[in-house]
From TrEMBL:
Its EC number is 2.7.11.1. Residues 27-286 form the Protein kinase domain. It comes from Amphimedon queenslandica (Sponge). Residues 1-26 are annotated as: Disordered. It catalyses: L-seryl-[protein] + ATP = O-phospho-L-seryl-[protein] + ADP + H(+); L-threonyl-[protein] + ATP = O-phospho-L-threonyl-[protein] + ADP + H(+). InterPro entries: Kinase-like_dom_sf (IPR011009), PDK1-typ_PH (IPR033931), PDPK1 (IPR039046), PH-like_dom_sf (IPR011993), Prot_kinase_dom (IPR000719), Protein_kinase_ATP_BS (IPR017441), Ser/Thr_kinase_AS (IPR008271), Ser_Thr_kinase_AGC (IPR050236). Keywords: ATP-binding, Kinase, Nucleotide-binding, Serine/threonine-protein kinase, Transferase. This is 3-phosphoinositide-dependent protein kinase 1. It is an enzyme of class 2 (transferase). One of its GO terms (biological process) is intracellular signal transduction. It holds the Pfam family Pkinase. The keyword ATP-binding applies. The keyword Transmembrane helix does not apply.
Length: 478
């Protein structure tokens, strides 16, 4: 065996100088990224290195007043212990008279929750990919003796390449030994809180695995498993272990979720007593995952996805990102023809003569609508152009709603049983209407895709009317 090499002799040197503390003046402030309850996060560029950071600025007086000093120092302590690509990284901290500053890696693509909201639910492939990243992250975190305690899609940020960067360590817990695995105070977000936190006010590493089960369910089904009108009811459901797996949920994911959402924290797949992470990673939901390479893989594209709700029927993707066969010009032509405006001479006469008569007609119609239409109270005095029942789907769940298009144009939806206005699909020039089949149509808005199903099979009629309103709206808002 070769003799071990002598380490090279080191010249006596003075200790390396402490890196110079940064200050506010070292940065250009580009834009506000977000606001938290106790902080503002700003995209800032280091003037000398030109590197960009998410600079989290915390107002000292506010933090003291709100008794959040412990929360802030916890966040700093935990971040200082973490150095892993699937977590936000703390590069430096500094302070001045008024503020504390945390220099964090910039998660350019924002929150995973925004993507989930936008597309409604993830398909199995995307669910597997993001779940495997979270599993790797949790294995690392728990290996470091840290419980996150508030894991949820909102705290999972995305870097520029769409890989995860977990954040928000204000309520995390560092434990020194297994005995110390418990923590004393209640924290967390209602829908992801584990039963042991609610019942005994203790958190284990395994409490993060419960949250993981909730997240996997939410990825696929479109909403978390324990979901109720208020926190109290949500807690009751968690304690009673009251949740159901919807039809269409893949069997392998169902088995995984059921092995994570176990009320006894010592019986959850992935916890120490169940053999730790190897059995979790070996679950058949992850069959094709190459655990050593997840970080280098290209994340799957997150497309609007419509999981099937009946067994045996494949889930459908939206064609939204595909080149559309119907151009805007086509829509415009069809619209003009529908209104007899295709011929330029007709367009001109209509434009000249229409206005006053149109106003009178509208007033007359409104009067009629007020006395005959059940939906009139919901539309702010606007004229209803089209209304009908639809099933508004989110992931694997749907709710029956009365959809009402008005001439504003605005698109309201009402709970037809409780007769309560539930919301509005935000109208803008940027919306896109897409017909999926004779029943299903999508309204794509910049922040969310609405999945609407016309039980009578007249999706085409909705799509045509919506597109006419859109063309008219665009022409009036040029
Ligand atoms: P609260 O303190 O009320 O719980 P929060 O945890 O969202 O809120 P912050 O951590 O201050 O508060 O974040 C504020 C906003 O900035 C959030 O929308 C978050 O997504 C965004 N943000 C925070 N850190 C980063 C980062 N490193 N990169 C990109 N965006 C970030």
């Amino acid at each position: 065996m070769a003799a071990p090499q002598e380490p090279p002799k080191l010249e006596a040197k003075s200790p390396p100088a402490e890196p110079q503390k940064k200050s506010r003046e070292d940065f250009n402030f580009d834009r506000i990224i977000g606001e938290g309850s106790y902080s503002t996060v700003i995209l800032a560029t280091d003037k000398s290195s030109k590197k960009q950071y998410a600079l989290k600025i915390l107002d000292k007086r506010h933090i003291i007043k709100e008794k959040k000093v412990q929360y802030v120092s916890r966040e700093k302590d935990v971040l200082a212990r973490i150095d892993h690509p699937f977590f936000v990284k703390l590069y430096f901290t500094f302070q001045d008279k008024d503020n504390l500053y945390f220099g964090l890696s910039f998660a350019e693509q924002g929150e995973l929750l925004d993507y989930l909201r936008k597309v409604g639910a993830f398909d199995e492939n995307a669910t597997r990919f993001y779940t495997s990243e979270i599993v790797i992250a949790l294995e690392y975190l728990h290996g470091k003796g840290i419980i996150h305690r508030d894991l949820k899609p909102e705290n999972i940020l995305l870097n520029k390449d769409m890989h995860i960067q977990i954040t928000d360590f204000g309520t995390a817990k560092i434990f020194e030994s297994d005995e110390d695995e418990k923590a004393s105070s209640f924290v967390g977000t209602a829908e992801y809180v584990s039963p042991e936190l609610l019942q005994s006010k203790v958190a284990y590493k395994s409490s993060d695995l419960w949250a993981l089960g909730c997240i996997i369910y939410q990825f696929l089904a479109g909403r978390p498993p324990f979901h109720a009108a208020n926190e109290y009811l949500c807690f009751q459901k968690i304690i009673k272990h009251e949740y159901s797996i919807p039809d269409g949920f893949p069997d392998n994911a169902k088995d995984l979720v059921e092995n994570l959402l176990v009320s006894d924290p010592t019986k959850r797949l992935g916890c120490d007593k169940m053999g730790g992470y190897p059995p979790l990673k070996a679950h058949y939901f992850f069959t094709d995952v190459n655990w050593d390479n997840v970080q280098n893989e290209t994340p799957p594209t997150l497309l609007p996805y419509l999981p099937s709700t009946t067994k045996g029927e494949a889930g459908m993707h939206s064609d939204y990102n595909m080149p559309s066969s119907t151009s805007e010009q086509d829509f415009e032509d069809r619209f003009l023809q529908c209104f007899g405006l295709g011929d330029p001479s007709k367009t001109e006469s209509k434009a000249r003569s229409g206005t006053e008569q149109d106003i009178l007609d509208r007033e007359e119609k409104l009067k009629q609508q007020a006395s005959t239409s059940t939906w009139h109270p919901f539309v702010n005095g606007e004229l209803i152009i089209k209304t009908g029942l639809v099933d508004k789907r989110k992931g694997m769940f749907s709710k029956r709603r009365q959809l009402i298009l008005t001439d504003a144009p605005r698109l309201y939806y009402v709970d037809p049983v409780a007769m309560v206005l539930k919301g509005e699909i935000p109208w803008s020039s940027n919306i896109k209407i897409e017909q999926k089949n004779f029943k299903i149509f999508f309204v794509h808005t910049p922040n969310r895709t609405y999945y609407l199903e016309d039980p009578t099979g007249s999706a085409k009629k909705w799509v045509e009317t919506l597109n006419k309103s859109l063309v008219l709206y665009k022409s009036q808002n040029k």
